[in-house]
Amino acid sequence: MEDRAFYLLLRKFREFGVDPSCARRVSCRSELDCIIKALKICNGLKVTQLGIDPGETVGIVIVVDAVPVWEWEGSRDEAVKVVSEVLKTIEIDRVVTSEGGLDLLPSSLEVPVVLVREHGTSKRRVRGLKKHSSSAYLMVARNSITRRVRRWRGGS
């Protein structure tokens, strides 16, 4: 990894509270992959979930335990490509969505899918997340594993 890229990654680690000396042991393919693996290895976090808020504008968020580490918003057509790419490059433990989000998932999905109710997720916002990504995060928070909503300090 280039020095500049490593320096930028160390800044991201500090944002998420990862010890840089521990993070050096992480072997990864991308910046996002590095952050997720470092959170799991160095901070003891366990579950990586992909939250999808379906609709005309789709919100997607990756959450490690209760920490959102990546967000995306866009059209349904783009969302299908983004979801497929995320599932290919990141180890996701489960996908959380409502019934309206099932058509965004690839047919060859080997990850468990948890269906939750979307009701009320648009009325609340999580500070630091965009509108639809916030709804996706709140859907993940409804899952029995993730209960607390924590303020996010990261970027997309």
Set out the fold topology.
Elements: H1 3-15, H2 20-23, H3 31-43, E1 48-53, E2 57-64, E3 67-75, H4 76-89, E4 94-97, E5 113-115, H5 131-142
Parallel strand pairs: 1-4, 4-5
Antiparallel strand pairs: 1-2, 2-3
| Whole-number tally of structural domains | 2
Rounded average pLDDT: 81
Name the CATH class of the largest domain: Alpha Beta
CATH topology of the largest domain: Nucleotidyltransferase, domain 5
**Taking strands numbered 1, 2, ... along the chain, how are they ordered across the largest sheet?**
3-2-1-4-5
Low-pLDDT runs of 5+ residues are 144-156
Q: Please, what is the CATH homologous superfamily of the largest domain?
A: ATPase, nucleotide binding domain
The main β sheet shows up as: 5 strands, mixed
Helix content: 25-40%
- Listing every helix as H and every strand as E from the N terminus to the C terminus, the arrangement reads HHHEEEHEEH
Which band does the percent of strand residues land in? 15-25%
The number of E-state strands comes to 5
Gyration radius, in Å: 15 Å
Class based on secondary structure composition and strand pairing:
alpha/beta
Distance from N terminus to C terminus (CA atoms, Å) equals 21 Å
Gross morphology is globular
Q: How does CATH name the architecture of the largest domain?
A: 2-Layer Sandwich
Number of helices: 5
Q: What does this entry look like structurally?
A:
Helix content is 36%, strand content 19%. The radius of gyration is 15 Å and the shape is globular. Strand 2 and strand 3 form a beta hairpin. The chain is α/β, with parallel strands linked by helices and 156 residues long. It has a five-stranded mixed sheet. The protein has helices spanning 3-15, 20-23, 31-43, 76-89, 131-142, and strands spanning 48-53, 57-64, 67-75, 94-97, 113-115. The longest helix is centred in the middle third of the chain and has 14 residues, at 76-89. Mean pLDDT is 81; it is low at 144-156. It contains five helices and five strands.
